[in-house]
Amino acid sequence: PKRGFTNIFKTEYEVVNLGRLADLDQSEITPESLRKAGVVTSKRSKVKVLGQGELSKAITVHAHKFSKSAQEKIEKAGGKIEVVSGQ
Predict the structure, then answer these.
(1) What is the pLDDT of residue 87?
(2) pLDDT of 35
(3) So what's the pLDDT on residue 68?
(4) How far apart are CA 33 and CA 21, in angstroms?
(5) What are φ and ψ of residue 6, in 5° steps?
(6) What is the pTM of this model?
(7) Closest CA to 84 of 54, 59, 57, 61
(8) pLDDT at 7
(9) pLDDT value at position 1?
(10) Which residues of the chain carry a pLDDT beneath 50?
């Protein structure tokens, strides 16, 4: 028998670090541009940006969720964050 509980409504996020975003050399980054670049593979999962890595230029990042450290580093570099709702 199967043990435990599996939540079928669980929201799954694909994690992207700031260092990977800095390597893309784009001024505006969206989940669609991350899929085209091959950073995010799933079309169904949402994108969460984490603060590992450094950012040297101002960029605008559109994602579903941001960690607190990622938000601070993006704003410190002069960039902006935009929270995307839905899919």
Answers:
(1) 59
(2) 92
(3) 95
(4) 11
(5) -115, 120
(6) 0.83
(7) 61
(8) 87
(9) 60
(10) none
Rg (CA), the chain: 14
User: What is the per-residue DSSP string for 24-49?
Assistant: T--SEE-HHHHHHHTS---SSSEEEE
Report the amino acid identity of residue 2. Answer: K
> What is the DSSP secondary-structure string of the chain?
---S---TT---EEEEEHHHHHHT--SEE-HHHHHHHTS---SSSEEEEE--S---S--EEEESEE-HHHHHHHHHTT-EEEEPP--
Query: Side chain identity at 70, as an amino acid letter?
Result: A
Choose among 7, 10, 24, 14: nearest CA to 61. Answer: 24
Nearest Cα to 23, choosing from 14, 15, 35, 34?
34
Q: What is the distance between the alpha carbons of residues 41 and 59, in angstroms, rounded to a whole number? A: 22
- In the block, tokens 């994690």 appear at 15
Distance CA 3, CA 11 (A): 21
